[in-house]
Amino acid sequence: MDHGILFDHARTARIGLPEAVFCEGKPFEAVQDLLSRFGRGSGHPILFTRLAPDVFARMPEAVRAGYDYHPLSRTAFGDVLPDRAKGRAAVISAGTADGSVTWEAARTLKYMGIAHKIFEDCGVAGLWRLAERLDEVNSFDALIVVAGLDAALASVMGGLTPKPIFAVPTSVGYGAARGGNAALASMLSSCAPGVAVMNIDNGYGAACAAARVIHSL
Length: 217
Description:
With 217 residues, the protein is α/β, with parallel strands linked by helices.
């Protein structure tokens, strides 16, 4: 069935970043049709984001078998891009509650063939956790910092590293956190210069920003 979706297959050659499919809100039939076309061996690496576990579970077994699916990040891909010879990215999160966004970023990096490592539970409530990892974190070429609540981790990292930082506010937190808007405002108001801030919960976008840095190495 043709659902009117036209892929920009030339995007990788043009900007170095492949097209991705944002699944949330799409009709089930449209998502199924796309998954049926771009599974393992299709020759067209496509990343599917915001693919809910219950939606993926409804897909026919033959479709599901063609994908590497990660339920926490809600990401899936069949084919991936070739591994890059240069450049590594670190994904640093304040807490495991930020896991869905953290892993969306990491999975996007994996899909794009970029070497990476996740450093979880580095929140400012226990700064020793970050301090003991800082030397290793600073060995990476680009840093993605994921945090909710007051998102102070972005400012702390901005004052401790010279590496490019892409900060992602998450929607984690009680009432006054306002679904991530407090974290977003905190990151945007940071006194640490040069910290780039992504949209709320946009781990995919942060990985793409880090990829642009790594592609320039």
